[in-house]
UniProtKB/TrEMBL annotation:
Name of protein: Osmotically inducible protein C
Phylogenetic placement of the source organism: Bacteria, Bacillati, Actinomycetota, Actinomycetes, Micrococcales
Protein species of origin: Brachybacterium paraconglomeratum
SUPFAM superfamilies in the cross-refs: OsmC-like
InterPro entries tied to this protein: KH_dom-like_a/b, OsmC/Ohrsf
Gene3D superfamilies on file: 3.30.300.20
Length: 156
């Protein structure tokens, strides 16, 4: 059953599928909510995600979801993956100038050509399917790197 905000404020005219909201819970703290009942504490305290962290999580979450089906065809349905996003905001410009994404995949036992194909498949899937990245770029440089796939790196 979809979740709706309480009635402290009327629903905005544009409220509909995909709408999210955040309620203030204290000084510079909020709780973000989705219609599926997800709650995310937002702030800079313990147990809270900052808006910048949420941006980076959105980017790598989108990259992971966008590439999942295509990578599963190459690496097996139950492949493991971990995605990282690194970057800090530039204080002078008060914005992120770059966010570096790194992906860890099970590349052991793959040939150099197979690894190159995995990297290409990942990059193409993200470029075509990641709505979040397509919305952010070209405003911020977002780079991707499949860890262990760089030329000259040995596979375990």
């Amino acid at each position: 059953m979809p979740s709706l905000p309480d009635d402290r404020f009327p629903l905005p005219e544009d409220f509909g599928p995909g709408s999210v909201w955040a309620d203030r819970t204290g000084h510079r703290t909020l709780v973000g909510r989705t219609q599926r009942g997800v709650e995310i504490p937002i702030g800079h305290g313990e147990g809270e995600a900052s808006p910048g962290e949420l941006l980076k999580l959105a980017l790598i979450g989108c990259a992971g979801m966008s590439s999942d089906v295509n990578l599963a065809r190459r690496l097996g349905e139950d492949f493991e993956a971990r995605l990282w996003a690194h970057g800090t905001s530039d204080e002078a410009e008060n914005r992120y100038l770059s966010i570096a994404e790194e992906v860890q995949l099970p590349l052991e036992g793959l040939t150099a050509q197979e690894i190159a194909t995995v990297v290409k498949v990942f990059d193409r899937a993200v470029a075509a399917g990641c709505t979040v990245e397509r919305s952010v770029v070209p405003g911020v440089e977002v780079t991707h790197r499949v860890l262990g796939a760089e030329p000259g790196e040995e596979q375990a």
